[in-house]
Structures are given as structure tokens and as C-alpha cells.
Amino acid sequence: MALTKEDIINAVADMSVMEVVELIEAMEEKFGVSAAAAVMAGPAAGGEAAAEEQTEFDLVLTSAGDKKVNVIKVVREITGLGLKEAKGAVDGAPATIKEAMSKEDAEAAKAKLEEAGAGVELK
């Protein structure tokens, strides 16, 4: 019996954040692709959308730095994740911490994470 896209989406919706991260890593390994590269290729295919000013930003943790505990605390504050999920996200760096943020919110979150000692990018 073949799974439909809806079956897969429902299964992913029932997963924890860490399970989704592990699933993405397994898919990247199996198919030899990078989710980050696919995300970067998406806007380039849009043409006109790339010409407009970006209004939504993704907060990407590039490294945890030396003070990982402080970074985990800030990630929890920004995302509302539990301790286990926040630790998993920090340990899994580089990782997207939060998507589709306004420029102001993204800049504020980036400043907090950098103050805690993390490496951060806005995409």
C-alpha cells in the first residue's frame, strides 16, 4: 500500500521536533541532498519574488559557541520549546531555530543569541 502525501504530512505532524530533525537528516543522507540547498534554490526559481525586499527571515543557529547552556536558554525563550527539544536544536547546529520572522523580531532574536555566545545567521 502506497502512502499519500497527506499520510506523510499527518505522520510528520505527530512527531516531536527532534524526530523531524532526525527524519530530515536521514532523507538528506539517503537522497544525497541538503535541505538548506533546497531552501536556497526555491527563491531563485521564483525570479520576481527575489527582486522584492525580503520581509520574512529565518533564524539559523550556525554554532552553539562556548556557553551552550546560555544558548539553550535563549532558544527556549525564542521558540517556546521544551528543554530537550531546545538542547537538540542547539546540539544539531547548524539548524533553523525559527522561520518566517519579521525583520525586527529576527534582529532582536539574533542579538540575544549572539550575546549568549552563539553563531547566528538570518536568511
UniProtKB/TrEMBL annotation:
Pfam families, alphabetized: Ribosomal_L12, Ribosomal_L12_N
Function description: Forms part of the ribosomal stalk which helps the ribosome interact with GTP-bound translation factors. Is thus essential for accurate translation.
Gene3D superfamilies hit by this protein: 3.30.1390.10, Single helix bin
Domain of life: Bacteria
Keyword line: Ribonucleoprotein, Ribosomal protein
Large ribosomal subunit protein bL12 oligomerization domain sequence ranges: 4-50
Domain Large ribosomal subunit protein bL12 C-terminal: 57-123
PANTHER family reported in the protein's UniProt record: 39S RIBOSOMAL PROTEIN L12, LARGE RIBOSOMAL SUBUNIT PROTEIN BL12M
Subunit structure: Homodimer. Part of the ribosomal stalk of the 50S ribosomal subunit. Forms a multimeric L10(L12)X complex, where L10 forms an elongated spine to which 2 to 4 L12 dimers bind in a sequential fashion. Binds GTP-bound translation factors.
SUPFAM superfamilies: ClpS-like, Ribosomal protein L7/12, oligomerisation (N-terminal) domain
Matches recorded under InterPro entries: Ribosomal_bL12, Ribosomal_bL12_C, Ribosomal_bL12_C/ClpS-like, Ribosomal_bL12_oligo, Ribosomal_bL12_oligo_N_sf
NCBIfam families: L12
Protein name, as recorded: Large ribosomal subunit protein bL12
Keyword Ribosomal protein: yes
GO cellular component: ribosome
Keyword Ribosomal protein assigned: yes
UniProt family annotation: Belongs to the bacterial ribosomal protein bL12 family.
